[in-house]
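REQUEST ID: PR-0412
SUBMITTED BY: lab tech R.K.
PRIORITY: routine
TASK: structure prediction, single protein chain
INPUT:
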Amino acid sequence: MSDSWKPSTQAVHAGTRRSQYGEVSEAIFLTQGFVYDSAEHAEQRFISSGDDEFIYARYGNPTVKMFEERIAALEGAEDAFATASGMAAVSGALTSMLKAGDHVVSARALFGSCLYVLEDILMRFGVEVTFVDGTNLDEWEAAIREDTRAVFFESISNPTLEVIDIEAVCKLAHAKGALVLIDNVFATPVYSRAFEQGADVVIYSATKHIDGQGRTLGGVILGSREFIRKTVEPYLKHTGGAMSPFTAWVMLKGLETMRLRVQAQTASALGVATALQGHKALAQNIFPGLASHPQNALVQRQMGAGGTVLAIDLKGGKDAAFTFLNAVRIGLISNNLGDAKTIMTHPATTTHQRLSQQQRDLLGITDGLVRISIGLEDEADLIEDFLQALDAVN
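STATUS: complete
OUTPUT:
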């Protein structure tokens, strides 16, 4: 592997481990355990394991290792730990480094399960959490203290698509000695420059664009070798959040085509968002790639593109949103995103339904809000379909 390889090449070749058979496609080492040559060999393996020495699939596996090394090379990270799901990655990254009495500052606009980890789990075990408006740097500066251990946010919030200035928040956090952990799902590894912009830890739900075809759950935590191997790995290998070898193989195959898929989806998302602008059924048309988005200049500087997800807010509230969802012919009603198929979600009644009305109001999750993850269908077909569904609302 060459450090000078471009991302598309890294996504196909980085981290490859070939067996004695010289296979082209990566092998699936579908085993939970490994055999030792002797009792002395087993003893030594448990004391210190090399890069190609494995003990138990919960600790590591050759196929999983290939995925970890490939995504780390692609992201520009020293190391990575692959997990059973995106939320295993979020909870594992945070819980592994925090203890009772620690202070965390987080953006309040988060996916529902991320809010649960911060509000219900971490706070239950004595971690103090302060929530801020992620787009307001003054609030970040006021909230981050000398004893703040970690800062957490989604680089693009789910589902309202607020964009946070990574570089600016990292500077504020690092000035007080806090680590910055970023859930970077909506930016995708294709448009991510998070480590370059100052992030200490980057987290992905690999279920989304990395697999991108609705097959498997997975996640990954990326960071320094010290953080991954001395903080994250001991916690996750003992609590059981590791990725399975078969899932890792699926993710390796996903990485090979991810750039092509994500770039095509991003182009279609911009086309669809542009076509929906000004429709009389809409109160808002939210897409980071549109010039009308409040943080569009930041988006272009930070990512260079608007991503694969847009959100629309229908004037008629829940009834209008449901009418729209039920009238769409191509898009599927589900709660995933980053898939080859276009997927639509009504956050107020699904992914964020556990939040109080006051919390949803604070986050801008109205009854009329619909999140749309653009797939690989023909852009013209999607535009025609969404327009007829919006017309049905009226």
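NOTES: The chain has a mean pLDDT of 95.
REVIEWED BY: pending
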